[in-house]
Amino acid sequence: MTHYRHIPSVPLADRDVQPAKGQCGELRMLPPGELLVDSRYQREIGPLGNLKIKRIAAGFDWGKFAPLLVVQLEGSNVFAIIDGQHRAAAAAARDDIPLVPCFVLSLPLKAQAETFIAINNEGTKITTGALWHARATAGDREALEVITCATAAGVKIPRSPISSAFGKTDTTNAPQAIADCLRRYGFDITKLTLETLRKAGELRARPMITRVFIRSLAMILKHNKPWHSEPIHVLLGDLEASEVEARARIQARDNKNSAVENAARILHETIKRGLS
């Protein structure tokens, strides 16, 4: 027993201790194939996730299988996963695992999403889009504004990441850039920015709603109000986002400006030249 020790005794001041929140759950054995996933705050499993599931299933080890965190839907005998959908899918893929251990909680939707966010912020990183959707489900005001603005502009924030090579013209992986523009420039300019980039991308079937382009174009539209009524998306349609951003980053090494500022200058010159 010389290698074992007790967990540390950590003293807490009474003033620092808040009442425990919620109700303690219970451990139950449940069939993994019958567990549901709430798409309002959970991401879909993509190709990489499927590979992970196959890897877990092929080399299944109970010593590496932590209990799933699930919630029992009110008034039913139905259970939804808060954390552990890859492990659940791996177990369900096998014929020799009819039941898996689950820690069952009783939580309202908002608390489910908050729990999902807390676990995934502290543990395995998940996609940016999935976290923003989870935050919106939990009632986070900033996330709700971002998704509302994007939706109003006809832009989608996917729960699973998309590469720039295969991305669609109406999607973006840059919700934080949208949030920053909402805070700096307001709803109308941010919405116009997203609409313009979406329309520009549609002209040549190329994704343009990138982090740098969102911030750059919003900066331009803030200081050039007459351009708001101009079809500037036509002027931007021939630009390739990756090329412009590469040029902007190279210039940043020399002129000390940020990539966003340099990209804004390139976009500004393109628009001004096209309107003259």
Describe the structure concisely for a colleague.
The chain is an alpha/beta fold and 276 residues long.
Describe the structure.
There is one protein chain. With 276 residues, the chain is α/β, with parallel strands linked by helices. The protein has two domains: 104 residues, Conserved hypothetical protein from pyrococcus furiosus pfu- 392566-001, ParB domain (Alpha-Beta Complex); 132 residues, no CATH class. 49% of the residues lie in helices and 8% in strands. The chain contains eleven helices and five strands. Strands 1-5-3-4-2 form a five-stranded mixed beta sheet. α3 runs antiparallel to α4, α4 crosses α5 and α6 crosses α7. The longest helix has 18 residues. It is elongated, with a radius of gyration of 24 Å. It starts with 25 loop residues before the first strand and ends with a helix.
Index terms:
276 residues, alpha/beta, Conserved hypothetical protein from pyrococcus furiosus pfu- 392566-001, ParB domain, 2 domains, 8% strand
Task: Give the SSE map.
Layout: E1 26-30, E2 36-37, H1 47-58, E3 68-72, E4 79-83, H2 85-92, E5 100-105, H3 109-122, H4 128-137, H5 141-152, H6 175-185, H7 187-204, H8 211-223, H9 232-236, H10 241-255, H11 259-275
Parallel strand pairs: 2-4, 3-5
Antiparallel strand pairs: 1-5, 3-4
Helix pairs in contact: 1-2, 3-4, 4-5, 5-6, 6-7, 6-8, 7-8, 8-11, 10-11
Instruction: Report the mean per-residue pLDDT as an integer.
Output: 88
Tell me the Rg in angstroms: 24 Å
List the total number of helices. Answer: 11
Helix content: 40-55%
3D shape: elongated
**Widest beta sheet: strand line-up:** 1-5-3-4-2
Number of domains: 2
Task: Report the end-to-end length measured between terminal Cα atoms.
Answer: 83 Å
